[in-house]
Amino acid sequence: MATNRTFTMIKPDAVKNGHIGSILAMITNAGFKITSLKLTQLTVSDAEKFYAIHSERPFFGELVAFMSSGPIVAAILEKENAVADFRTLIGATNPADAAEGTIRKLYATSMGENAVHGSDSDENAAIEGAFHFAGREQF
Ligand code: DAT
Ligand code: MG
C-alpha cells in the first residue's frame, strides 16, 4: 500500500448509534478518498490479532469484547499525509480530550467506546488494510 493511505474502522458503538453516514461524510469532506470499504464483524480471535500490540494492557479484554460485539465499517483512505491528517480528524483517544469538531468529540461515548480507529503509522496502515481487505478488494 502506498504511504499516502491510512486504515480506519467505524467501531460497533458508532454503527449501533446510526453514525455510519455522518462519519463517512466527515471523512470525504475532509478530502479523503475511500479506496476500500465494507461492513463486517470481527470475531474475538480477529480482534485479539488486530489489537495484539495491546495484549498486555489492562483494558485488552474489554477492548476485544467491544470490538467483536457488533458490525463495524472497515475502510482504506487515501490522501496526502493520510495517517497524521486522519488522526487529527478523529481526535484524542479519550473523547473528553478530543478537540471540538473531531469525530470522537462528536460521536465517541467513552475512552473504550470511541467511535473510530485510525492507524498510527504508514507501516501499520499497510498491515491493517491487508488484515481486512483481500487484494481484489483494494483499489
Ligand atoms: P487509539 O485508538 O487512539 O490509537 P490506542 O491505540 O492507545 O488508541 O488504544 C486502542 C484502543 O484501545 C482505543 O481506541 C480505545 C482502547 N483503549 C485505550 N486506552 C484505554 C483505556 N485506558 N481504557 C479503556 N480502553 C482503552
Ligand atoms: Mg492506536
Automatic annotation (TrEMBL):
Residues forming the catalytic site: H117
Function as written in the Swiss-Prot or TrEMBL entry: Major role in the synthesis of nucleoside triphosphates other than ATP. The ATP gamma phosphate is transferred to the NDP beta phosphate via a ping-pong mechanism, using a phosphorylated active-site intermediate.
Organism: Flavobacterium nackdongense
Protein name: Nucleoside diphosphate kinase
Catalyzed chemical reaction(s): a ribonucleoside 5'-diphosphate + ATP = a ribonucleoside 5'-triphosphate + ADP; a 2'-deoxyribonucleoside 5'-diphosphate + ATP = a 2'-deoxyribonucleoside 5'-triphosphate + ADP
Source lineage: Bacteria, Pseudomonadati, Bacteroidota, Flavobacteriia, Flavobacteriales
Molecular function GO terms recorded: ATP binding; metal ion binding; nucleoside diphosphate kinase activity
Any Pfam family: NDK
Domain Nucleoside diphosphate kinase-like, residue spans: 3-137
